[in-house]
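Quick start: what a row looks like.
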Amino acid sequence: MDFCFRKYSYPFVVVLLVFLFSCHSLPPSEPLPPEEKGFDPRELSWQQVSMPGDLLGDWYIEGKLDLTVGEDTLRVRGTWSLIQSTEKSDLYYRIIYKIGSQYRAMYLRNITETGVQIAYTDSMAVSEEGASARPVAGAWITLTSTNPWIAASMPGEMPGNWHIHDGKMEMEIDRERVVLDGESWEIDSVETNRTVERLILRNGERYKSLYFREVGSYTMGAFLTDGKEDIQDRYGKVHGDWQTLYRWWDFIEKCRLYPGSRWVYDYSYSEYYTKVYNTTTPIDSIVQTNSLKGQFEIEVTSSTIQEGTGGLILQAAFLIDEEKGRYYHARKDGKTEVLTDSSWVNPGILKTEQYEIVLENDTLWYETEAGKVFFASAKIESGAAINLRAFVYPFEFPREGFPEGRDIIVNIQFSPVSRPQSSTALTSGWNIKKRAQFVFSKGLQDIYYLHYAYERRYWRGSEQYLNPYEKDTSFDCKLFSFTPGQ
């Protein structure tokens, strides 16, 4: 590395100097006015001082960040440098800073919390002493600490329906207006200070400011204030009661729950059970399996839903091409003796179910003999809950593989889910995994459920592991085709 540096040091220095001058070139400025022509920093007496507190922070010129002052660093027009010294002479301050191996001086005056005037020397120098001896070039430049609000465009993800939760800070946003908790506000302007953005809303003579940040497909940060006053601090930050807003959509519309809509899924179901009876001699073991494979269809046969009320009928059908099962019972007493090993196949099974769904208070409910059971919110958002009751094969219940019964509650996701949700019991004996992927204008696309139970670990002869068993039940639905209704 040293050899390379010596070999190329001269051209490297030339290139570096060209780069530094190009990166740190100053904008053209008017000549110093007559009263400033007598300003010669070499004639002043300078004393080392601490950095003035009012100078720390960001400074702007015509809405653009021009200077950032720290305790020991500067950023001048995008280029970071190290502060070598801070000095004062009467009404003036001088900061000498280093970029690479070069030095430059900056002069400041009229420092307040909201403004400062600066001037630079005409060129770089190879030492601090050289920088302090360079003459000032150009006029004094006025910077302000106020981060100005400038015109901006509304983010493309922002139009739509948003809320903190159902009924709190409900907003419908489009390019021209915002309906806030049922009251319409015209968008007077969209502004940014390059740190945060805001909408200035107007309703007659009244104003509100909606500050927002980190607008994504499903969430954004926001808070609302009365009026349109500038509440940013010295550093352009806006402090307030920031809340996470969630974007929501009409579930019936996005799921296409209209008469005639029909979904066809590839469907599979499996059960596995094995147990060892090691408390008796000889030891018995049992393995039992059962599986279903075919298609599941669900269709909206009718709907009376209008203006937030009404109901619809879902017709579900399981068209099972094949059911297979096996029962195996063996006994081990020195050698293994198979007591039972039977299997079966049942082709062509059809099971149908009908579900009545009602819409009340922005919620869809299953009508059952026991009363209303939650189905889904009429306002769907990422992570919203949905009940997969209609996707569960119509077994006789209760059933061991479904400790929650037929009502399987899962949080939907709008993007492919690589890992199912997991719910573990307070004891270590069982686990449930489930997922539901939602696709706009198609509905549920990928559904998965697994219940796994075990007693202790695997087969061990210790008394701590008596009669171990393992059971799992799972089903999988993947959308094969969708026919939209009207």
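That is the whole record. Residues 252-483 form one domain. The first strand starts at residue 47 and ends at 48.
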